[in-house]
């Protein structure tokens, strides 16, 4: 088996360690189950579209699924939307009387909504980029995507600062900074065969 098929970066290990020591072990399923539902939905969609999974890696960007095979723009859109759909389905079935499962379902809905924002490297950003390129051509489509990204990032950063200063919650600011850090790098992912 190729050693690069499954790659776990130092940043991903560090993040997992931070989560472990800051939270009780019992909270891991609350986070891991929605992430698993999301990523497995991507894998299933790619498989049904005739793609071969070439590898899965985890780094500071998150999980990245590399695949091989021809896929039409509609196929790329379906594969990108499969993750949020899987997260939404998991959330619908997760609202039960079990407290941790209810928390997990709520987190899954939050992650699904966040993932549908039209910003790279999110699934919504991939779909928005493909649709803009198809409708307006590559040059104009990419220009529209960059403009929308800049405006949304400004809004998210402003909201993140507000929540960090006045509400004492740093998660929105951390998410906005994460999106900002990977904007330029992730534009290439749309053209390559990768899904995050």
Summarize the structure.
The protein is α+β, with helices and mostly antiparallel strands. The protein contains eight helices and four strands; from the N terminus they run E-H-H-E-E-H-H-H-H-H-H-E. Helix content is 69%, strand content 10%.
Total tally of structural domains: 2
Taking the sheet with the most strands, its summary is: 4 strands, mixed
Number of helices: 8
Distance between the termini: 22 Å
List the helices and strands and how they pair.
Elements: E1 6-8, H1 10-22, H2 28-48, E2 52-59, E3 62-68, H3 73-94, H4 99-115, H5 123-136, H6 138-166, H7 171-181, H8 183-191, E4 194-195
Parallel strand pairs: 1-2
Antiparallel strand pairs: 2-3, 3-4
Helix pairs in contact: 2-3, 2-4, 3-4, 3-5, 5-6, 6-7
């Amino acid at each position: 088996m190729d050693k690069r098929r499954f790659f776990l970066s130092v940043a991903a290990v560090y993040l997992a360690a931070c989560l472990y020591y800051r939270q009780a072990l019992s909270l891991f399923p609350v986070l891991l189950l929605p992430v698993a539902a999301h990523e497995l939905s991507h894998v299933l969609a790619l498989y049904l579209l005739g793609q071969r999974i070439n590898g899965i890696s985890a780094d500071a960007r998150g999980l990245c699924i590399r695949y091989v095979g021809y896929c039409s723009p509609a196929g790329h859109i379906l594969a990108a939307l499969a993750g949020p759909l899987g997260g939404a389905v998991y959330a619908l079935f997760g609202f039960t009387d079990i407290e941790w499962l209810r928390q997990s379902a709520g987190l899954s809905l939050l992650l699904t909504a966040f993932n549908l924002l039209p910003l790279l490297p999110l699934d919504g950003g991939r779909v928005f980029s493909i649709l803009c390129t198809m409708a307006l051509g590559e040059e104009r489509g990419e220009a529209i995507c960059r403009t929308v990204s800049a405006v949304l990032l400004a809004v998210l950063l402003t909201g993140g600062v507000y929540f960090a200063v006045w509400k004492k919650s740093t998660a929105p600011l951390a998410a906005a900074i994460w999106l900002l850090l990977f904007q330029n790098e992730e534009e290439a992912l749309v053209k390559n065969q990768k899904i995050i």
